[in-house]
UniProtKB/TrEMBL annotation, chains A, B:
Coiled coil: none
Family annotation (InterPro entries): CinA (IPR050101), CinA-like_C (IPR036653), CinA_C (IPR008136), CinA_KH (IPR041424), Competence-induced_CinA (IPR008135), MoaB/Mog-like_dom_sf (IPR036425), MoaB/Mog_dom (IPR001453)
Pfam entry (one): CinA_KH
Annotated ranges, domain MoaB/Mog: 4-170
Homology family: Belongs to the CinA family.
PANTHER family to which the protein is assigned, alphabetical: NICOTINAMIDE-NUCLEOTIDE AMIDOHYDROLASE PNCC, NMN AMIDOHYDROLASE-LIKE PROTEIN YFAY
The protein, known as: CinA-like protein
Species this protein is from: Sandaracinus amylolyticus
SMART domains tied to this protein: MoCF_biosynth (SM00852)
């Protein structure tokens, strides 16, 4: 059962606003079991709206259109729908009364132009708008169910939940199941390599990849004769993917990397202290994005200057002079300083050159030193040369540092 | 001269991703003088990609397509482009070398699957990718210029600027000019009120608003018989907008709020120390996102626990016990502690309840205390009850704190 989404409005074709309605609708339709094959955006032109409606109706069983139901002269969707059907418009008095009541309730004068929001193609089904002025409506075009909704996101969503989903839920049978695995640590090409052959040997499965730097999401989509069967296949293949990618997989769906790291600490009753330089607070911001992170994060000292490294973390001035602030020695001293200051189980430190300036031949932009200090264990340091611009270097460095924390927590076990 | 944008990817038709590429491209094409009539999104299906390319090529002179150029099996755009042309693929050795060099530079192993990123439809024009692996390419289809670009936003944008805009700029006459003013501190409704009447008195001007929390961007779009004239009008109205919105306007186009705050400090030779609690490093991460921020940021102490507030910032334990960690007294002591610790000119502190837990009747979730300490001036504290979820509360709190820093720097003058 295929479906399509149509967004109407010159403000969209001009790129004046991002089309969040389309992605929201596409996701809802997908979850209902529809195969959404295309999303379209057309400007406020009756001819093009009509043409697009006919093209979509000839291909899909369900079409959800948004926008162009307002009171102004460039709101042409209702006229276009009527033309596509080859019928006229008729005024719907109950809707007009509802619009009048709404204005009265807001203590506002209803303008004449608002009356057109109560006009609909003859024979259309009205979809009352519980939270706004313009009702939506539904028509049957070439055997396709076409729903027209206002473009205001919260009004559109409410009408979808109140009227559209109940009307179409029975049309689609949910025969797919998708599991999204979130990974960090392997480049997309390597992920693809490690998973090669799965789709060939599992025709019911499609693997998708989405890079949202620095993470890569692997989507396992399984198709079967019913949802339960599809879910079983998806779970089995998701396990295969986990086996092949190892600990690069940190979670599913909406799990976050910071949440994963926090869980590794919380499960073992471990506390963390952070010392940041080039990441400038990013690591702390990531860790504390997780509710309850105060249970395990004791301290994050963003010591941007050498003076701060010395005053707050007790990093030896001589050490910095001799090795430079970007060195394994200083990273180690920062981690140990943070560990001692907060009396934590784990201390992690990052010092590097995020650029664009500050690079040298010996230490080019992207040079980053990491250190992990542990109560009762030797401090470990490592260096990497990270690619990309300042923001990417800082983001990647934050992930690498937190990955070191998670790995240390896992290998360390309970406090 | 009409144009269209095509976005390719099942992650888009399933609504897993908001299509920001399409709106960005639509805006750029519009600014170049093209009439963008439609935006389309299709899933990763060769047949539908081919069909859509042909349909768009028959109607528009310029088409920009994004997505599906990656190394994985669901990247099918190149094959579809070749089928639409009725030609085969050929390997482009210079591109393959470039990809190899890129992997070598990153010290990574190039996997076999990446080689397909150097395959293009026979006769296609290659569009080198200066910031990523996959090059784009351009073809001529039914007299339409069709550009294929990677879906990774920053790679796509770079190739548009390097290759696409130079190739198509001459096809359209540019008769508009847009200036984007970035603001923080006024709700969208207030911004709209303060700017009311401008469009009525300036028919050649359209004002657009884009909220990207917590900032609001005001777009001044001017139309005229030629670009120079349009630019003149846009500049004049932009000044009117600045006059009406006052210091809520912090910059234009790609200026960042953190960059603005940094400039206020740098211009006056002032240094900053930060003490964070609920924002957990966000303020530091924002400040240090600006290259050269080490000139003015001396320290950011993320003191999540009371112990850290005491140990690092010298906040009196009795004070915390008596007023609670979320109080004006503690915020003030944190700011003064950071100021003294780093011997900075300005010290800013934030302590609050970001939620979802931790709220009380007296101090509900969203309660945030701010303090600004200055060398040789009394410490100022203020409180706000911030709306939204944990992430919004933290983000808004970070902006409010930095706004206090910028305002203090301005009123303080040179060090």
């Amino acid at each position: 059962m295929t479906a399509a989404v149509l967004s109407i409005g010159t403000e969209l074709t001009r790129g004046e606003l991002v089309n969040t309605n389309a992605s929201w609708l596409a996701e809802r339709l997908t979850l209902l079991g529809f195969e959404v094959q295309e999303l379209r955006v057309v400007d406020d032109d009756v001819g093009r709206i009509v043409e697009t409606l006919r093209a979509l109706a000839s291909k899909h069983r369900v079409i959800v259109a948004t926008g162009g139901l307002g009171p102004t002269t460039d709101d042409l969707t209702t006229i276009a729908a009527a033309q596509a059907l080859g019928v006229g418009l008729e005024r719907h008095e109950p809707s007009l009364d509802a619009i009048r009541r709404r204005f009265a309730k807001l203590g506002r004068e209803m303008s004449k132009t608002n009356e057109k929001q109560a006009d609909f193609p003859i024979g259309a089904t009205i979809l009352p708008n519980a939270v706004g002025t313009a009702p939506g409506f539904a028509i049957e075009l070439d055997g396709a169910r076409v729903f027209f909704l206002p473009g205001v996101p919260f009004e559109m969503r409410r009408i979808v939940e109140d009227h559209v989903e109940p009307a179409i839920a029975s049309l689609a049978e949910r025969t797919t199941h998708q599991i999204r695995l979130r990974t960090f640590g392997l480049p997309e090409s390597v992920v693809g390599e490690k998973l090669s052959g799965i789709e060939e040997s599992e025709p019911a499965v499609t693997l998708g990849y989405r890079a949202s730097f620095p993470e890569i999401e692997v989507k396992v989509l399984a198709r079967a004769s019913n949802h339960a069967e599809a879910e079983g296949i998806a779970r089995r293949i998701a396990q295969t993917v986990r086996d092949r990618l190892g600990d690069a997989v940190f979670g599913e769906t909406d799990d976050t990397f910071a949440g994963y790291v926090g869980q590794m600490l919380r499960d073992r009753g471990l506390t963390l202290a952070i010392a940041e330089s080039c990441t400038g607070g990013m690591i702390g911001a990531m860790v504390t994005s997780v509710p309850g992170s105060s249970e395990y994060l004791l301290l994050d000292a963003v010591t941007y200057s050498n003076a701060a490294k010395h005053d707050l973390l007790g990093v030896d001035v001589e050490l910095m002079r001799h090795h430079g602030a970007v060195s394994g020695e200083v990273a180690g001293a920062m981690a140990e300083g943070a560990l001692a200051r907060a009396d934590a189980h784990l201390g992690v430190a990052v010092t590097g050159i995020a650029g664009p300036g500050g690079g040298t031949d010996a230490k080019p932009v992207g040079t980053v030193w990491f250190a992990l200090a542990q109560r009762g264990a030797p401090t470990v340091t490592r260096t990497m040369n990270l690619p990309g611009d300042r923001e990417r270097i800082r983001t990647l460095a934050s992930y690498v540092a937190l990955k070191m924390v998670a790995d240390a927590a896992i290998s360390r076990g309970r406090a």
